[in-house]
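Issue 218. Parser rejects a valid record. Input:
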Amino acid sequence: MAINTINGGYTPPVRGGYPERAGPSNVASLPDKPVKEVDQVQLTPGSMSLRQMQTERQEPPIDEAKVASLRKAIAEGGYQVDSSRLAGKLSDFEATLFP
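Output the parser choked on:
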């Protein structure tokens, strides 16, 4: 017995199987007819932005001296994270992805 936990109502079990669906197994049995309708897909601005970043694949310039000084500061325990600046940068980055 299945009990609906939201309102405590009883949900009877499904019997008799599922109705036949147009899936990979029975697509070949469909008659050869031209397609009448074509589904439209609309991408969100965020997904288009991500796609553009993937296709561009530009490597940012790396400041080797800055990387070396940061590694040294982290190893010595002297690197301090500015949490408000980090939060602002994350927020700005997210805003460019999802306008």
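Fixed in the parser; the record now loads. Residues 44-99 form one domain.
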